[in-house]
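TICKET: design request
STATUS: open
ATTACHED STRUCTURE:
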């Protein structure tokens, strides 16, 4: 997997899930801003990148949610 934020490889075998280069599912539209757990709203990211981004709204370059 590749981090969608920094575009670097995610460690496939971290010693534990809190290591900075371990992978997590990042919400493109944060839950705090109404985002859900739909697959279109989740992307792979490093733990450190996900923490730095926090609950900031997604930049305009992220894919938009599908229209219903």
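STATUS: resolved
RESOLUTION: sequence designed for all positions
ATTACHED SEQUENCE:
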């Amino acid at each position: 997997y590749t981090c969608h934020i920094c575009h670097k490889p995610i460690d496939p075998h971290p010693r534990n899930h809190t290591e900075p280069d371990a992978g997590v599912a990042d919400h493109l539209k944060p839950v705090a801003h109404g985002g859900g757990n739909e697959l279109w709203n989740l992307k792979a990211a490093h733990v450190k990148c996900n923490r730095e981004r926090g609950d900031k709204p997604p930049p305009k370059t992220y894919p938009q949610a599908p229209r219903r």
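CLOSING REMARK: The two ends are 29 Å apart (CA to CA). The chain has a mean pLDDT of 86.
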